[in-house]
Design a protein that fits this description.
265 residues; alpha+beta; six-stranded antiparallel beta sheet; 5 helices; binds 8-azaxanthine
């Protein structure tokens, strides 16, 4: 009963040769349907497609005919579930889009209790690796995926634009609030999408040293060594805290991984 991974690998190649691979949602559906049609004992096919960025080089002001570069680690992703009894479920997404804003982000007024050590901040660096997804209503079959196939590139472009624009212009009250705004806009832009989700690690960058403007964060999880509280003033009175902060240090984990899922109903 076992379909060898060798056969599966070759099927992936041959179906890529025989069919369009763009948009990846259509290719994933065709591939999944093939396994259901070919093997009577297989009821569900799960397909994952990852598209990497290859951007055409501009050389002497003109697009080069055959040279490309890896334009960041961001990927476009598709998860397809093709069921013998229940049509095609597609989840599209973006992963590994690293972003940072140097101001326009705050986090204060959150619940404070006996478990809280975090200081409030009205102005911080905000950085994350965007992982977001949008899940489509179920498609009856491959023909339904193919019909209006432009929806997939349109939704990917809209999700990417919404993510970047909202990240840039939102005066962020929290990661949670900003990601919720992104989800709502994706649902509005893509009527056939039922559910959107984000998963955002909080990648902290802190001033080197502390002052009353920047209370120590996570003190309970750090050793309170003199070095930890050392700013750069020991070196000829260098000022690098508060309004003078210019040199920041990326913080290693553990940092928050903040997730949300927003559905239409
Ligand atoms: N949300 C934020 O935006 N920033 C944070 C959090 C949080 O839940 N926790 N620490 N820093």
């Amino acid at each position: 009963m076992v379909v060898a991974t060798d056969s599966i690998k070759n099927t992936i190649y041959i179906k890529a040769k025989e069919n369009p691979v763009n948009p990846p949602e259509l290719y994933a559906s065709i591939l999944g349907q093939h396994f259901i049609d070919t093997y009577a004992h297989i009821n569900v096919a799960h397909i994952n497609v990852v598209v990497h960025r290859w951007t055409r080089m501009t050389i002497d002001g003109a697009p080069h005919p055959h040279s490309f570069f890896r334009d960041g680690q961001e990927t476009r992703t598709v998860e397809a579930e093709v069921r013998r009894d229940g049509g095609i479920r597609l989840k599209s997404g973006i992963a590994g889009l690293t972003v940072l804003k140097s101001t326009g982000s705050a986090f204060h007024g959150f619940v404070r209790d006996e478990f809280t050590t975090l200081g409030e901040t009205w102005d911080r660096i905000l950085s994350t690796d965007v992982d977001c997804g949008w899940t489509w209503r179920t498609f009856a079959d491959v023909a339904a995926v193919r019909d209006g196939v432009a929806r997939f590139d349109d939704a990917w472009q809209a999700a990417r634009d919404i993510t970047m624009k909202t990240f840039a212009i939102d005066d962020s009250a929290s990661v949670q609030n900003t990601m919720y705004k992104m989800c709502e806009q994706i649902l509005a832009a893509a009527p056939e999408v039922e559910l959107t989700n984000y998963s955002l690690p909080n990648k902290h960058y802190f001033e080197i040293g502390t002052s009353e403007h920047t209370p120590p964060r996570f003190v309970a999880t750090r050793e309170l060594t003199p070095e930890f509280f050392l700013d750069l003033s020991w070196h000829g009175g260098l000022k690098n805290t508060g309004k003078d902060a210019e040199v920041y240090a990326p913080q290693s984990g553990p940092n928050g991984l903040i997730k949300c899922e927003v559905s239409r109903s």
